[in-house]
Amino acid sequence: MTRYSAMFERLAQEKAGAFVPFVTLGDPTPELSAKVLRALIRGGADALELGIPFSDPAADGPTIQLASQRALQAGVTPDDCWDLIAGVRAESPDLPIGLLVYANLVVSPGLDSFYARAAEAGVDSVLIADVPTLEIAPFAAAAERHGVAPVLIAPTNLSDERLEVVASVGQGYTYVVTRKGVTGADDSVCFEHASLLAKLEQAGAPPPIFGFGISKPEHVRAALASGAAGTISGSAVVRHIQEATSDAALLEALEAFVASMKAATALS
Amino acid sequence: MRQDGRFGEFGGTFVAEILVPALEQLEGAFLDAQEDPAFQEELGALLRDYAGRPTPLYRCRNLCSETPARIYLKREDLLHGGAHKTNQVLGQGLLAKRIGKTRLIAETGAGQHGVATALTGALLGFETLIYMGAKDVARQQLNVFRMQLMGATVVPVEAGSASLKDAINEALRDWAGSYEETHYMLGTVAGPHPFPLMVREFQRVIGTEARAQILLAEGRLPDAVLACVGGGSNAIGIFSDFVPDAEVKLIGVEPAGRGLHTNEHGATLLKGRPGILHGSQTFALQDSHGQIQESHSVSAGLDYPGVGPEHAHLQATGRATYVGCTDTQALDAFQELSRAEGIIPALESAHAVHEAIRLARATKEETVLLVNLSGRGDKDMVQVQELLSS
Question: A209-228: b or e for each residue (b if 16 or more CB lie within 10 Å)?
Answer without folding.
Answer: bbbbbbbbbebbbbbbebbb
